Amino acid sequence: MTVGLVFFWPTHPVQADDPKEIDAEIANLTQQEEQLLKDVIGLETAIERNTQELADLNEQLGQAQAEYDKASQDAAEIKKKQEEESRLLNKRAVEMYKDQDVVLLLHLISSVDLTDLLNRANYIRILVDENAQLVEDYKELKEKYESAYKDVEEKRDQIAILRDEV
Questions:
Q1: Whole-model pTM?
Q2: Which residues does the UniProt record annotate as the domain Peptidoglycan hydrolase PcsB coiled-coil (predicted)?
Q3: Is the pLDDT of residue 52 over 90?
């Protein structure tokens, strides 16, 4: 908030012979002096208030910056986990599904008895379930990263707004 004052001082000496005029001029000048003192006090109060507002905004800016840094770090960690999950998922998908039909069929056919066949079928089901879980975990990490990235963008916008206010 910008406040300005214009000071008007008499530029000519009072040329009065009448004591009433002199008393009136003294009273007028005293009143002007009192008003100027009130204006100065008002300006000092406004300066103190604006200084406090600036300190509060700087504190908010610092907090927003800390939150932004934390959100950025969280997003980076999530992104790293997401990339690792993606790499594992891709590797596993290539190994598992490359010649899948033949490998699975050979695995089942090579069973020595019914119990072995059921155990191998169960093993295959477990692998498929684990792969499905990997896909779900990857999707969750991706959603978590997108959410964290959105938080980072919001914090960055808050910081920009606070910097504009400062």
A1: 0.51
A2: 76-146
A3: yes
